[in-house]
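Propose amino acids for all 211 sites.
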C-alpha cells in the first residue's frame, strides 16, 4: 500500500494572535475601562475625541501603548488574510508586516508632526492628528471580532475587504467633516500631506501585493 504524505498546516499562531488581542483588551479594561469604551464608541461620539484632545494625553502613556500595539497586530493580521490564502506563508508574512507597519506608523506620525511645526499649524492641527489616531484605534477595535468570525466561522475575502473599506472610508469621512475648517484653510498643505502620507503608501502596498 502506497503511503500518502499529508501536510497539516496549523493555524495555532493566529489563535495566539487573537489571545494576545484579548489580553491587551483586558489590560486596557483593567487600566482605563472608560477610555476603552470611549474609543470603542468614538465613531458616534465626537465629544470623546474633542475631550481627549483638550487633555493632551501622552502617546507614550500605558493605555495608548496598549491600544497602539493592539491596532498594529489587528491591521497586520488583516493584511495577511487579505493578501494570501497560503497557510505556510501567512505567519512569515505577519512577521514581516507587523514590524514594518509599526515603523511606518511611527515615521508617519513624526513626519506629520514635523509638517505641522514647519507650516506653523501645530496648535490648529492637534485635533486633526488626534482624531486620525483615535479613529484608527476605533477601527481596529471593530475589526477584531470580525476577524475572529472570519477565521472560525465564515471566511470571505470580499466581505472582509468590504467591511474594512467601509470602516476606513467612514473614518476618513469623520476626519474630513470634523476638521473641514482646518483643511479648507490649509488646502494646499492638506493635498500635499494626503498624497505623500496617505495615498502613496496605499499605492505602494497595492503594487507590491499584485506583482
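Proposal:
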Amino acid at each position: 500500500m502506497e503511503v500518502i504524505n499529508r501536510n497539516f498546516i496549523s493555524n495555532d499562531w493566529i489563535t495566539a494572535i487573537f489571545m494576545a488581542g484579548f489580553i491587551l483588551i483586558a489590560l486596557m479594561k483593567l487600566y482605563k475601562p472608560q477610555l476603552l469604551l470611549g474609543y470603542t464608541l468614538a465613531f458616534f461620539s465626537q465629544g470623546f475625541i474633542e475631550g481627549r484632545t483638550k487633555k493632551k494625553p501622552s502617546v507614550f502613556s500605558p493605555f495608548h501603548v496598549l491600544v497602539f500595539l493592539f491596532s498594529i497586530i489587528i491591521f497586520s493580521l488583516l493584511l495577511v488574510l487579505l493578501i494570501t490564502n497560503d497557510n505556510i506563508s501567512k505567519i512569515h508574512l505577519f512577521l514581516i508586516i507587523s514590524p514594518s507597519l509599526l515603523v511606518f506608523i511611527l515615521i508617519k506620525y513624526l513626519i506629520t508632526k514635523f509638517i505641522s511645526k514647519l507650516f506653523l499649524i501645530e496648535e490648529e492641527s492637534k485635533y486633526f492628528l488626534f482624531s486620525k489616531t483615535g479613529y484608527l484605534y476605533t477601527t481596529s477595535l471593530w475589526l477584531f471580532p470580525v476577524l475572529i468570525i472570519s477565521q472560525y466561522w465564515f471566511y470571505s475575502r470580499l466581505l472582509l475587504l468590504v467591511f474594512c473599506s467601509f470602516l476606513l472610508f467612514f473614518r476618513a469621512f469623520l476626519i474630513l467633516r470634523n476638521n473641514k475648517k482646518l483643511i479648507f484653510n490649509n488646502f494646499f498643505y492638506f493635498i500635499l500631506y494626503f498624497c505623500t502620507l496617505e495615498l502613496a503608501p496605499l499605492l505602494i502596498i497595492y503594487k507590491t501585493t499584485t506583482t
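The chain is about 80% helix and 0% strand. The longest helix spans residues 87-118.
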